[in-house]
Amino acid sequence: MARPIDLRSDTFTVPDQGMRRAMASAEVGDDVWGEDPTVALLESRVAALLGKEAAVFVPSGTMGNLIAVCAQTAPGDEIVLDRENHIVVYEVSGSAVVGGVQMRLLDPPSGVPSADEVRAAVRAADVHQPVSRLLCLENTHNRRGGGAITPELIDAAAGAAHAAGMRVHCDGARLFNAAVALGCAPARLVSQCDSVSVCLSKGLGAPVGSVLAADAATIATARRWRKRLGGGMRQAGIIAAAGVYALENNLDRLAEDHDNARVLAQALGQVAGVRLMLPEVATNIVLAECPLPAAEVVRRAAAAGVLVTDMGGRLLRCMTYLGISRDDAQDAASRLHGVLSELAA
User: Fold this and answer.
1) 7-65 pLDDT per residue, tens
2) What are the angstrom distances between the C-alpha of 11 and each of 28, 89, 209, 331?
């Protein structure tokens, strides 16, 4: 049987030959000592793209989010965020275990709370209650259908948070997908966010790494947290070079992934009993509620040569990315349509 078409996650990208050459020829130094020129180049480019003063290269998006929380809160504080936020669902309670902060969970349909919802979530200045210190957003929003969140929604939420004395962090693991889908600069999306983390190893195709950007003082504190958590890397320019290459070559092509995701969505939406969770502005994620448990769909789809993700209950996820061609998307769409049609019969 031919190799299956893998739509489980955009983390399955692999470096192309150009990226491998860039990694092999990277100029390196000891980054913990601040002497790796390629890491410094990556950090400065990401900071400029996001309109921030400084940035720090980290091994993963999870660490980027965690050090952003730890650098902007104190133990006993509270962070406010959507209950489906990546920090809540997929980061092993790191904010609570390491940062000592409590989470106040909201349930906004888009994943971004309105200004009124933010204001209502802010704790009173009361000795019995934690201090509301940080609002955490996510763009694009994985578990809300991969929706690209508009700058207007982010500005409204961030404005309410700032008015209440809170800071704002954006988990922008797929922020560049959002920028391409919305046709706006990445910096515009996070202009009202105090910190933002972006991932290099998803749609951009790098093998590893994320970058956290913020004001210089926050990044200085974040570097101490990176070291504390074991994230200090030595000759990290070898992997940072992949990120530099990705920024230079793989940003605009994200639109191809969005087009391929639409091919999948159209096919799944034609099956009786399947309900697509379509955000206002879709990107490379397709979420579908199936007429039977997603685990069974995953099993049958794998037998048909397509790998997809069980998101719990009847919720199924497909993701497109660098390495999934239009032919792959059309082939997978046809196979998934057949599997779901047979199961729904």
Assistant:
1) 999 999 999 999 999 999 999 999 999 999 999 999 999 999 999 999 999 999 999 99
2) 25, 17, 11, 21
Bond preceding residue 73 cis, omega within 30 of 0: no
Please tell me the distance from the alpha carbon of residue 152 to that of residue 135, in angstroms, as a whole number. 16
Task: Return d(Cα 283, Cα 46) in angstroms, integer.
Answer: 21
Q: In 3D, which of 26, 47, 46 has the Cα closest to residue 37?
A: 26
Model confidence pLDDT, tens digit, residues 279-332 = 999 999 999 999 999 999 999 999 999 999 999 999 999 999 999 999 999 999
Q: Tokens for 218?
A: 């926050």
Residue ranges of domains in the chain, CATH in brackets? 17-249 (3.40.640.10), 253-344 (3.90.1150.10)
How far are the Cα atoms of 187, 220, 237, 254, 291 from residue 30, in angstroms, in the given order? 29, 17, 9, 32, 54
